[in-house]
Amino acid sequence: MDIHFIRFIVSFTQQNKEDLSFAAALVSRYVRDGHICLDLNDIAGKVIFKSEDGKNIIECPQLQVWIASLKSASCAGEPGDFKPLILDEKASLYLQRY
What we know:
By secondary structure, the chain is α+β, with helices and mostly antiparallel strands. The protein has one domain: RecBCD complex, subunit RecD, N-terminal domain (Arc Repressor Mutant, subunit A). The protein is about 40% helix and about 20% strand. It has 4 helices and 6 strands; from the N terminus they run ααβαββαβββ. Helix 1 (about 1-10) packs antiparallel against helix 2. The mean pLDDT is about 85.
């Protein structure tokens, strides 16, 4: 389900696809785990995966870069907008239905 959601979200844009797909994957996962939003402040710039050999590292984008990427995407909006992803002024990312 997460993969289909990511593909749907990324289909809206031609730029910042990595930041956008990463945000979509994480917010989808957080909702599936019972949370209503993803607080970008908590994870921005942090490593969220590192393989045992240290060769594969997944790090979240820096907060301001990530926010700018989301704000420039046509599939992300502010509270009250009818867009799949909602980013509020506190850098909390929601699925529109929540």
